[in-house]
Amino acid sequence: MKFNSDFAFDLQMGQDEEIWLADLLRGKTVEVKRDYIASRTGNLFVEFSSRGKASGLATTRADFWAFILDGERVVIVPTGFLQQVARQAYSEGRTVRGGDNNTSEGVLVKLKELVR
């Protein structure tokens, strides 16, 4: 992209991107998760079972997943892409227990894998 120091140009570009994001999510479902330590660890916990039953990413019907990292930053990814990354994490043995009272099983997905 060519550099442009004109504020009006930059403002229009920003507004165009806001419209793009709104259009992307319009009419879609978004599963929202908060991960309190992902900003510190660099990993997101993505649940796939709880109390011995499929849950989370394994049963979602959402089009997108949004992870709130620290109250100010959000990562939004298509569910299919997250499932692909989570399968890779699973195949690498990055499974852990977590959630309320460690009753859930999930994988640790590296934040950098979602923004590559």
Description of the molecule:
The protein is of the alpha+beta class. It has four helices and seven strands. The strands form two sheets. A four-stranded antiparallel sheet has the order 3-2-7-6. Strands 1-4-5 form a three-stranded mixed sheet. The model has no long low-confidence stretch (mean pLDDT 91).
Could you give the topology of this structure?
Layout: H1 7-25, E1 30-34, H2 38-41, E2 43-50, E3 53-54, E4 64-68, E5 74-78, H3 79-91, E6 95-98, E7 104-110, H4 111-114
Parallel strand pairs: 1-4
Antiparallel strand pairs: 2-3, 2-7, 4-5, 6-7
Report Rg: 17 Å
Proportion of beta-strand residues: 25-35%
Fraction in helix: 25-40%
Widest β-sheet, arrangement of strands: 3-2-7-6
Q: What's the total number of strands?
A: 7
Query: What is the count of DSSP helices, taking H or I runs of 4+ residues?
Result: 4
Count of all domains = 1
Parts with pLDDT < 50 across at least 5 consecutive residues: none
Biggest sheet, open or closed, and with what strands and sense? 4 strands, antiparallel
The gross shape turns out to be: elongated
Element string (H = helix, E = strand): HEHEEEEHEEH
